[in-house]
Amino acid sequence: MLGDKIRKIRKGEDLTVAALAARVGVSESYISQLERGLVDPSVSLLRKLAFALNVSVASFFDEDGAEPIITRLEDREQETMQDGAVSFSWISPEAQDLLLEMAEVSIRAGSTLQAPANPHYVCLFLTQGSVHIQFGQTAAELQAGDSIFIPAHTPYTLTNCGTELTKGILCVSKGGQQI
After folding, report:
1. Comparing C-alpha atoms, which of 115, 113, 72 is closest to residue 92?
2. Distance of CA 105 to the CA centre of its chain
3. For residue range 154-172, what is the model confidence (pLDDT) as tens digits?
4. pTM confidence score
5. Could you tell me if 29 and 53 are in contact, meaning their C-beta atoms sit under 8 angstroms apart?
6. Cα 40 to chain centroid, rounded
């Protein structure tokens, strides 16, 4: 139940009903009614609650006690591009409703990966080799052990200018909208 989830998160943040009400701009009695399931909040109030509680709106609807999902190496979905110059081995399970996807990405020496603008946040952690990254007017060189966070709606280009294979872990957070 939504109210139970809000109460659990509020208590986890060590907030009183009064403190949460003050942060959100509603009465204590409204928060109390909300937590008991007597009222339904608007979408804008859910956004305010999420901000006040330092969580995403989606966390109010996450299932408690969901089972972990294991993806075995031999079961990973493989994807290649540009005649095998760039490949992805999807670490995360195949599930449409997951908000985070992870892949091991490999870029052959001399190859380039062009990623168009999309609504997702991307984080790349290099585990081997080096890569030149270009986004907008900004360019950077990354070495093994470096990482980069790429905001949503930002097209970018990765080029392996080295002589060896470059590998990294790519994390994609779906639905890169900010509240």
Report:
1. 72
2. 17
3. 999 999 999 999 999 999 8
4. 0.61
5. no
6. 28
